[in-house]
Amino acid sequence: MLKIAIDAMGGDNGPSPIIEGLLLALKKNKNFEAIAVGNKEELLPLIPQKFDHRIEIYDCNDVISMSDSATDALKRKDSSAYIAIDLVKTGVADAYVSAGHSGASMSLATLRIGRIKGVSRPAIATLMPTVDKNTLVLDVGANVDCDANNLKEFAIMGQVYAEDVLGIDDPLTGLLSNGEEESKGNEVSKEAYKLLEHIPNFAGNVEGNDIFNGSTDVVVCDGFIGNIMLKSAEGVADTIGKIIKNNLKRSLVSILGAVLMRKVFKSLKVKVDYAEYGGAPLLGVKAPVIIAHGKSNAKAIQNAIFQAVAAAQSDLKIDIENRLQQYK
Amino acid sequence: MLKIAIDAMGGDNGPSPIIEGLLLALKKNKNFEAIAVGNKEELLPLIPQKFDHRIEIYDCNDVISMSDSATDALKRKDSSAYIAIDLVKTGVADAYVSAGHSGASMSLATLRIGRIKGVSRPAIATLMPTVDKNTLVLDVGANVDCDANNLKEFAIMGQVYAEDVLGIDDPLTGLLSNGEEESKGNEVSKEAYKLLEHIPNFAGNVEGNDIFNGSTDVVVCDGFIGNIMLKSAEGVADTIGKIIKNNLKRSLVSILGAVLMRKVFKSLKVKVDYAEYGGAPLLGVKAPVIIAHGKSNAKAIQNAIFQAVAAAQSDLKIDIENRLQQYK
Questions:
Q1: Which of A159, B33, B208, B327 supports an S-S bond with A228, CB 3.0-4.6 Å?
Q2: What does residue B135 show for φ and ψ, rounded to 5 degrees?
Q3: Which pTM was predicted?
Q4: If you average pLDDT over residues B217-226, what whole number do you get?
């Protein structure tokens, strides 16, 4: 039976939403079991007895907090993140999920579980919504300075993830740039363009708006730009919501309008709610590692666990290794 | 009398919206005159006789089209952009406005009008909306690869523009990065951080969402990232609009709701409509140069002209020169 190791202590709101999300996931999917790593005294009361046979608690007394340095993670051997990662490293568990310190999860996964053969640097991928589908964007934060070869590897890893886990055939892949023409780009992206021309389904340069119009399936950039793009997108959505709310308050007619439109706003909210997407996979390590928002609610954790299960049931690792070898 | 040179032939929709915007601007502001550079036969019928004394037509027969290369701009000496720029260079006009080929305008302005003393590279600045104010972001496209010193100069030019033209005292200035901590950033931005610590009103690193929450007045980044951020923001706003429209169609109740909310949507539209902001100033050249969208309507051109007038009436050039010298 598939086993998912869960860092039950990470996350801004303690173990409650993590365990709640795990229970939701276990109810909906009978094909996996979990190892919840964390303080037994805190976790036990959160788990109904009927889940005893599907959740094993691995007791530990340390947790890497958001304010700790990621570089200390390797020394914190009794922390929930360290132990959960090691359960995957030793093969006791098949995948890892954490809403804790993302830098610590990345370091531990990269250094303890290890990189897939051919991967220079693992990358964090995330799904961005468009009107009728999603776009997988990577890297969104693991690697701040990248060279052209890193970007090429991200493209290949993103394509394999899109195929194996998201079920997209021949995922069209763009290179994020400041214009569509081949001549556009900064030094690194222009060099990457030349490398990417040799991989299948390369769509050339794409612009920021292309991420949100669904013209490609995978978009590649360095983690500095990916993070700025992601946060900017969140900022725009937040600001639009606030402007609407502030203007609503000025008239009863508008408020009535908003009530009548509530189904529309609900559909929109579902589209832009991170919780619907779960977490972000760290691609390029030897086992599925899903990094969830620190503020994850139960639904986000449930979906992060589903991502871990789907990735663990796929041939992601071997396919990434083979594809990188093929287009070396 | 202040004279604005207008490239009347640039723009996706020919001279009509340009002249229409100019007429709007002239009606509302009596303190300037214009030189419209373009084909006299095309322009004359667009200008009512009563504006004859405030609009001079400078006849020419060439226009740099959007598909032309910016590098050819310097050879196209009979083009509307070249001539309008030269009217500023020779002091016949005080500022330049164009909705034509932005690369051509940038090259011509930089090479013909010339850079302000102390400026390594001019930068394009643009206003991004927040709930209750705007954030000036630069560079959004002039310089794809930048070093730390370029970013420092952008910060200083942005601050002076915010003070002199936007009327903001002590403009708080952030460096766009992947996290707020000083340790965050890529190689160039970390180096820039150290330089920026020596200028006043430096707010440290800011994230993508900070552009849209109004926490700072000026945000600095390289033109590659600025372009991606700008296009991503436009993409998010477009996609939210489309999701709302698509969902509206599914129910009459929702459509009624939207009708009742139309004032709210109108306020939102005003906030995110580029036409409200006019164009983007190219900061660092010796005279005000305003680059408008190719698709500019009359309102956008009117506002671009107002920006040119405001910049020409300010001490922008001398203040940028002095401030750069002061924080060299």
A1: B208
A2: -115, 130
A3: 0.93
A4: 97
